[in-house]
Design brief:
There is one protein chain. By secondary structure, the chain is α/β, with parallel strands linked by helices. It has one domain: Rossmann fold (3-Layer(aba) Sandwich). The chain has seven helices and six strands. Strand 3, helix 4 and strand 4 form a beta-alpha-beta unit. It is globular and about 50 Å long.
Length: about 180
Amino acid sequence: MAADSSFAILQFVARYVRPRARVDSLAQLSPELLSQRGIRGLILDLDNTLVPWNTTRLTPETRAWLETVREHGVQLCIISNSAGDSRVQFVGESLGIPYVSKAVKPSQRAFRLALAEMNLSAEQVAVAGDQLFTDVLGGNRLGLFTVLVTPITRKDFIATKVMRFLERLIGAVLRRVPVETESLT
């Protein structure tokens, strides 16, 4: 009985913490791929997804990808747990992308604000971010298509480093739990 309940708990955790897809960079999320999945909006994390942690420097490749995605009609919104509004505001405004700072992810509030900003349903929106316990968990709780992105750099906020250690532990356990995932090919 204890083994059954432990397995049920693991399946429950896997449902909310496991991303639907994984990519090495945002460039792997092509507009065609998003369109095939019915995705019309994309919520993006800021630190280590769009820009290296604690910077505002977008690479030319990221800028080009953002333009391509927008040219194909995909709406964008940045959601960041960053405590300061200025970096999130600077990146969002310089790109002409709406943003939510101090999001307190995985809280649903910021994700709901992004959905309202884009005027789209959860089924039409994906979230791409570099952390399981913020981006993926928050997106999965609302039924968004979640994409785990390999962090741009290893440099992180100290609390994020602790969470990454826990993510590796959970990841090792979740690989043993049978849950369907989707391929990006």
